[in-house]
């Protein structure tokens, strides 16, 4: 098949000089919907500042735990929520969020973090084994908003090493920053 006849945009150097069949991946990608790689029709604008929802999937789903960590006068109202394309693995006794395949769902809770101070307290609690990442939070209750850009604590090490239960050099290096030499 000649690429010029395929309806795909032609670009010199995109195809080899001699005629070769298109790869199955390229054929699939050409027929995929326009948002296949982005997984969203519109651009995602994650909140640049506070307040911002943080998605929790482990011990922080307990309001009493959030109250204690943030030194709040009363237990906070958490909203039942979920995020897509992530999975939870075990890092010892602790859950660790890692990227996963499209369609996988992690359920948990979301809390509206109101200040940098609250975010720092949560980060301190989570340790440097986790890093803050942007995510899209889908709420399971009837309140507004129904979905929003938010943040989540993800495993900071090598997810594949975690899944294979082998030494994680990436996390070890992160935890040793400034402590060696």
Automatic annotation (TrEMBL):
<dbReference type="InterPro" id="IPR045038">
    <property type="entry name" value="AIG2-like"/>
</dbReference>
<keyword id="KW-0808">Transferase</keyword>
<dbReference type="Pfam" id="PF06094">
    <property type="entry name" value="GGACT"/>
</dbReference>
<dbReference type="InterPro" id="IPR013024">
    <property type="entry name" value="GGCT-like"/>
</dbReference>
<feature type="domain" description="Gamma-glutamylcyclotransferase AIG2-like">
    <location>
        <begin position="54"/>
        <end position="172"/>
    </location>
</feature>
<dbReference type="InterPro" id="IPR009288">
    <property type="entry name" value="AIG2-like_dom"/>
</dbReference>
<dbReference type="InterPro" id="IPR036568">
    <property type="entry name" value="GGCT-like_sf"/>
</dbReference>
<protein>
    <recommendedName>
        <fullName>Putative gamma-glutamylcyclotransferase</fullName>
    </recommendedName>
</protein>
<dbReference type="GO" id="GO:0016740">
    <property type="term" value="F:transferase activity"/>
</dbReference>
<comment type="similarity">
    <text>Belongs to the gamma-glutamylcyclotransferase family.</text>
</comment>
